[in-house]
Each structure stands twice: as structure tokens, then as C-alpha cells.
Design a protein that fits this description.
This protein has 184 residues and is an alpha/beta fold. The protein has one domain (14-76, 83-158): Rossmann fold (3-Layer(aba) Sandwich), CATH 3.40.50.2020. 25% of the residues lie in helices and 33% in strands. The strands form two sheets. Strands 4-3-2-5-6-7 form a six-stranded mixed beta sheet. A three-stranded antiparallel beta sheet has the order 1-9-8. Strand 5, helix 4 and strand 6 form a beta-alpha-beta unit. Helix 1 (13-31) packs across helix 3.
């Protein structure tokens, strides 16, 4: 595997596979009985665009069937790494989660703004339970929330790319690795 020179590898495909297996087992335990409690399968809500790779891989590792759903969130500028938008936008794509147990899936929890925003909206809609899972969790002092389950944590301020996380300079979203941008 050859990375662009401005990136440093953090997690390769093998490490990510191990994390997916571990997380899927935990989520299977969460989802067991969801249908008996609510009359419906666990609803897995993917935060698009970046979360789609992680979401698909995670669901394929699970033993229990769940119902997939999607919302599209816009929290960062596309032209500069790490530049948050003043206001977050979410397209709910006709989602009706009333009375459901929901698994909120995103590729990264950075500031936690997206997870918190989506979680609050879901609870206002009358969901029974929300649990969140991310592949990456950047540990930040100013974070507004944290995921319930995560594959990896990262304590630095560098921008992370790969596996759905976009590098404004080179793309790199559709990869089976996660890297950090060096010398921002």
C-alpha cells in the first residue's frame, strides 16, 4: 500500500477488520431482543456521506438482521480540512423512527456535533433508545458528546482521512485504511 506523502498511516485493513468483528459482536448483543421490545427490527441509521463505508462493512459483520436507514449531514467545509460550517444541515430522507431502537452509525466522532444533533432529533421523534457507534473517535477537550462504541481513538489534532473521511487535498475517502494528515 502506497500512501500520498502528506499522510501517515494509523490503521490498516487488518486492524480495521479486527475492530469491525469486535464492534459487530457488541451490537449483536444490543440488537438481540429489540424486535421483541418494539415490534420492529433495530434501525441502523447511517450518517452519509462518510459513514457509508463503515456502515456497510459493519452490517455485513453482524449476525442479527437490522433495518438500514440513512440521513445526510453537512458539518464541515469541503474545501478545507477541519473547517466546521457555522450551521449543521441534515437531510432526514423521510425517516420515521417513532418507537424504534436506533443504532446511529458514523465513521468519525470529531467534535461530536453531528452525533449530538442527530441523537437529539431522534429523541424528539419518540425513539425508545439511541446508541451510537463510530470507527474513529477523536479525543477532544471541547467535544459535546462521545459515541457509545468506537473502533479506535485518536488524541491528536491532525485531520484524519480514509475510510469515508475526506482529504480536501487528495480525496482518499474510499480506502480500507485510516491516516492522519501530516504538517497541516
Amino acid at each position: 500500500m502506497s500512501l500520498p506523502e502528506h499522510l501517515e498511516l494509523l490503521h490498516d485493513a487488518d486492524e480495521m477488520e479486527e475492530a469491525l468483528v469486535r464492534m459487530a459482536a457488541t451490537i449483536d448483543a444490543w440488537s438481540e431482543g429489540a424486535e421483541a421490545r418494539t415490534g420492529k427490527m433495530l434501525l441502523a441509521l447511517c450518517v452519509l456521506r462518510g459513514g457509508v463505508f463503515f456502515f456497510s462493512d459493519l452490517l455485513l459483520h453482524m449476525k442479527y438482521s437490522i433495518e438500514p436507514a440513512f440521513c445526510r449531514a453537512f458539518a464541515y467545509a469541503k474545501t478545507k480540512n477541519g473547517e466546521p460550517l457555522d450551521k449543521m444541515f441534515v437531510d432526514w430522507q423521510g425517516l420515521d423512527p417513532v418507537g424504534r431502537e436506533v443504532l446511529l452509525v458514523d465513521n468519525i466522532c470529531d467534535s461530536g456535533r453531528t452525533l449530538l444533533h442527530v441523537d437529539r432529533w431522534l429523541r424528539m421523534q419518540g425513539v425508545r433508545r439511541v446508541r451510537s457507534v463510530t470507527m474513529m473517535h477523536r479525543l477532544r477537550d471541547d467535544a459535546v458528546t462521545s459515541p457509545d462504541l468506537t473502533g479506535f481513538t485518536y488524541p491528536g489534532d491532525e485531520w484524519l482521512v480514509g475510510y469515508g473521511m475526506r482529504d480536501a487535498n487528495a480525496g482518499s475517502m474510499n480506502t480500507r485504511w485510516i491516516a492522519r494528515v501530516k504538517n497541516q
